[in-house]
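Revision sheet: structure tokens.
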Amino acid sequence: MAAAHTGFILAAYAVAFAVVGGLTAWVMLDYRAQRRTLASLEQRGVTRRSATATPAEPATRQAREEA
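Predicted:
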């Protein structure tokens, strides 16, 4: 009885392995692409909103002087 289902079980494992492997590869490739994009943006001078502002920025300095 078990031999009749062996093909289905092996196929299910193969498909699951292929899906998990494909998703893992996709995440790794997307991570690398996002890192390249971020490096490119930072090289062009675009900063992240979470980055701390430098005190030499004129708007920041002006706001501090007015306060």
